[in-house]
């Protein structure tokens, strides 16, 4: 008699029962708590993300508040010109307020020479010999030359094989204080030399050996191969009626903290106005308002209740966020004695709206910026011992710093959420391990049962077969 049954390769083969389905359902029931754990983890992660957003916005608010105490914000100046094409300004942040009338009778220029001889191409040769370039000043009529103090003549050697382009390149590489270029006109190519710097003291002469006399310029010595196209000259101007001579068209130091740039000769005085930089103050205050509103709007969105869907925001009722919102509003309405003129933010035109955001009353704020010393006190006065005497910017900076610091509410709350997330993950890992063990045990038990049922089924078939055979045996 066969005593073994079929080998079980899949649950239910031996018994004919849906053991796989039963196993799946039992394991699913055992894993059910994992669904809630995962939902809890998702909610925690959402909170972490949102609190992270709020923390970033609080930091941005601190940055905006700190900008109200930036060095130079309240003392910097700006300059404007009523004819910037002729006279403009460069830098004015440290200039004293005032008006300056500028008239320009001549612009500073560098000496420019051009060869009288024209050449067929830049590849033409020019002879051989030495050119000697020296900086200095010419008298009227160019009959006498005075070398610049401390200057040294620079020699440029020209070989017989050097082309006009080679000569240009050698002069430029010599560092002699002049720039060489090639200019082509209807007659051909000419060599042009120009002072690197402008001003009467930055003229130059070019001594030349006989072989390259066509490239020399020293009228006092009878060398006129190059022709004078423009003399080196100083700029001539008046500032508030005071005569100014300058080697450069940028007048630096004439007006303290301001560079006046001359671009055209004028027929009428140009007015330069230096005024306090109210625009930068306005921008800084607007930046503060924008940072506050971004934070306020985000908190409102995440804590509001949707009456249609009857669902509250993810942070509705969150004590940390609600507490932050209350602190912000308290700061807005708390008076300050830092300024004798501006006691509250609304005094400077920064007004609280019904939705909790801020707006700037431009008319009122423009009036406030006319009194920058008091406005500076209102925003940037520091007094850690007495918050009622601190400026508005300092208060918000301190609040933001406290919220995001090592032991601040936002920092500790985020750390608490992270701890819950770690514990949740540990619980999920433990449950998954338990379910894996449970599933293995069930599989083992179901496999054994399936095997036994298969053996019983085989035995039943054998007995039935034997009984059938016996019933067919002849009787004597």
Give an account of the 3D structure.
By secondary structure, this protein is α+β, with helices and mostly antiparallel strands. Helices cover 41% and strands 23% of the residues. The protein has 8 helices and 22 strands. The chain has helices at residues 19-67, 164-174, 278-303, 319-333, 362-369, 372-380, 392-404, 409-471, and strands at residues 77-81, 87-90, 98-106, 112-115, 129-138, 145-147, 154-158, 178-185, 188-195, 203-208, 217-218, 223-224, 226-230, 235-239, 242-246, 250-255, 258-262, 270-276, 305-306, 311-312, 350-352, 358-360. Helix 1 (19-67) runs antiparallel to helix 3, helix 1 runs antiparallel to helix 7 (392-404) and helix 4 packs antiparallel against helix 7 (392-404). The longest helix is centred in the C-terminal third of the chain and has 63 residues, at 409-471. The protein is elongated and about 155 Å long. It starts with 18 loop residues before the first helix and ends in a 5-residue tail after the last helix.
Q: What is the CATH C-level name of the largest domain?
A: Mainly Alpha
CATH topology of the largest domain: f41 fragment of flagellin, N-terminal domain
Shape: elongated
Number of domains: 3
Q: Quote the distance from N terminus to C terminus.
A: 27 Å
Oligomeric composition of the shown chains: single chain
Number of helices: 8
How many runs of DSSP E, i.e. beta strands?
A: 22
Radius of gyration: 46 Å
Strand order of the largest sheet: 1-18-3-14-15
Instruction: Flag low-confidence runs.
Output: 1-9
Secondary-structure-based class equals alpha+beta
Give helix % range.
40-55%
Biggest sheet features: 5 strands, antiparallel
Average the pLDDT over all residues and give the rounded result.
90
Instruction: Give the CATH architecture of the largest domain.
Output: Up-down Bundle
H and E string: HEEEEEEEHEEEEEEEEEEEHEEHEEHHHH
């Amino acid at each position: 008699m066969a005593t073994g049954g079929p080998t079980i390769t899949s649950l239910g083969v031996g018994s004919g029962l849906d053991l796989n389905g039963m196993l799946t359902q039992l394991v699913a029931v055992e894993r059910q708590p994992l669904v809630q754990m995962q939902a809890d983890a998702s909610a925690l992660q959402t909170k972490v993300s949102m609190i992270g957003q709020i923390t970033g916005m609080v930091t941005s608010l601190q940055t905006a508040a700190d900008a109200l105490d930036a060095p130079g914000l309240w003392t910097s100046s700006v300059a404007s010109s009523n004819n910037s094409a002729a006279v403009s300004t460069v830098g004015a942040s440290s200039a004293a307020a005032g008006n300056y009338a500028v008239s320009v009778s001549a612009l500073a220029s560098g000496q420019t020479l051009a060869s009288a001889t024209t050449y067929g191409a830049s590849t033409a040769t020019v002879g051989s010999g030495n050119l000697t370039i020296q900086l200095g000043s010419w008298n009227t009529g160019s009959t006498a030359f005075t070398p610049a103090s401390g200057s040294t003549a620079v020699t440029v050697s020209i070989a017989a094989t050097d082309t006009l382009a080679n000569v240009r390149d050698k002069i430029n590489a010599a560092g002699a204080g002049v720039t060489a270029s090639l200019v082509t006109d209807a007659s051909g190519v000419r060599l042009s030399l120009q002072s690197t710097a402008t001003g009467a003291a930055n003229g130059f002469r070019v001594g030349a050996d006989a072989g390259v006399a066509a490239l020399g310029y020293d009228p006092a010595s009878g060398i006129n191969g190059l022709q004078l196209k423009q003399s080196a000259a100083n700029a001539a101007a008046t500032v508030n009626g005071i005569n100014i001579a300058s080697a450069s068209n940028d007048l630096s130091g004439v007006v303290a903290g301001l560079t006046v740039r001359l671009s055209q000769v004028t027929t009428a005085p140009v007015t330069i106005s230096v005024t306090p930089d109210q625009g930068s103050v306005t921008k800084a205050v607007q930046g503060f308002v924008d940072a506050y509103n971004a934070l306020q709007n985000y908190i409102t969105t995440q804590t509001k209740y949707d009456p249609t869907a009857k669902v509250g925001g993810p942070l509705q009722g969150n004590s940390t966020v609600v507490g932050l919102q209350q602190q912000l509003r308290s700061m807005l309405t708390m008076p300050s004695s830092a300024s004798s003129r501006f006691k509250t933010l609304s005094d400077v035109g920064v007004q609280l709206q019904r939705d909790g955001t801020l707006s700037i009353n431009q008319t009122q704020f423009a009036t406030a910026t006319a009194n920058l010393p008091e406005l500076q006190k209102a925003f940037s006065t520091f007094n850690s011992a007495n918050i009622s005497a601190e400026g508005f910017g300092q208060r918000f900076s301190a609040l933001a710093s406290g919220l995001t610091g090592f032991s601040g509410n936002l920092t500790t709350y985020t750390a608490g959420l992270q701890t819950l997330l770690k514990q949740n993950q540990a619980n999920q890992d433990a449950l998954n391990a338990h379910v894996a063990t449970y599933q293995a045990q069930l599989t083992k038990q179901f496999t054994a049962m399936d095997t036994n049922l298969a053996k019983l089924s085989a035995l039943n078939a054998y007995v039935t077969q034997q009984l059938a055979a016996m019933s067919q045996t002849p009787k004597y």
